[in-house]
Amino acid sequence: MPAPYRLTHGKRNPIAAWLDEFGLFGLRSHEKFVPQQIFSAPNSQVALFSCIICGPPTGPFVG
After folding, report:
1. What are the pLDDT digits (tens) for 5-61?
2. Contact 3, 13 (CB under 8 A)
3. Which positions ≥6 away from 57 have C-beta within 8 Å?
4. Sign of the C-alpha dihedral, residues 34, 22, 20, 27?
C-alpha cells in the first residue's frame, strides 16, 4: 500500500503513524496485540488492520 504523499525527511509513513496510535509501532511479533477499538470497527477496517499486522493473506481476498 503506497503512501498518499511522497515520504521524505519530516514526513512520517501514515501506516507507521496509525500503528503508533494503537501503541503497536516497533513491537516484535510476540508483543503485538489487537487493540480494543478493532473489535467494534467495520469489517473493512478489521481486514486492513490484519493485513498490516500479519501481512497479506496467501489466498484470494474475500471482503
Report:
1. 788 888 888 888 888 998 989 888 889 889 999 999 999 988 888 888 876 656 555
2. yes
3. 51
4. negative
Confirm whether 26 is domain-assigned: yes
Q: Is residue 61 part of a domain?
A: no
Give the structural domain span for 36: 14-54
Task: Provide the CA 3 distance to its chain's centre, in angstroms.
Answer: 13
- Name the pTM for this structure: 0.60
Q: Using alpha carbons only, what angle is made at residue 26 by residues 16 and 42, rounded to the nearest 5 degrees?
A: 50
Could you give the angle at which helices 43-54 and 14-21 cross, rounded to 10 degrees?
100
